[in-house]
Amino acid sequence: MMNDTIATIQKRRSIRIYDEKQIEDEQLNLIIESGRYAPSGGNSQSTRFLVIQNKSVLSKLEELVENGLAEMEIHENTYKSLKSFILRARKGGVHFSYRAPTLVVVSNKKDYGNAMADSAVAIENMMIAATSLDIGSCWVNQLKWLNNNELICDYMSELGIPDDEVICGAVSLGYSKQSNMNPLQRNGNPVIFVK
Predict the structure, then answer these.
(1) CB within 8 A of 40, min separation 6: which ones?
(2) What tens digit of pLDDT does each residue of 91-123 get?
(3) Which are the contacts of 140, defined by CB distance < 8 A and separation ≥ 6?
(4) CA-CA 20 to 30 A from 126: which of 50, 53, 66, 107?
(5) 4-174: what fold?
């Protein structure tokens, strides 16, 4: 018999099509609190959560990200998802947050060695919490890829992320309009047991 937590983890999907309806504050607060309760190295609790629900702010951020990605160079070893977004941004019409009504940007201290790990577990906690509340989510990396873009850094600073922090990731949140919600078969992620 599978417990509810494990079932929720296995049910979680990356949602890329959202309803315009904003998620309720009570649900949003539960999701954010789940991120805040993630473990952190040495219990530093230095992960910051910037919650954006303002449509004009999201629209400006979409524009800045598209322009920033379009200007990036592609190299032989460029990560395939980044390369795909760069090429799509050059054509126009990229919506890195998939038009979700809520975007949570997660940042942490630049000089903190566990910044990415702490932020990653916070994002995963939020995604599992969202799934348990029947809210869709998707981890998005585009802001992390643009940590050195001056225009984006300035805008993120205006929104409340201090200059001594780096964006580690973000999560889109909203009610799913995605039709295929079946669990994806696992063919990778090999497991080795040593008993």
Answers:
(1) 46, 47, 114, 118, 121
(2) 999 999 999 999 999 999 999 999 999 999 999
(3) 96, 97, 98, 103, 169, 170, 171, 172
(4) 66
(5) NADH Oxidase (3.40.109)
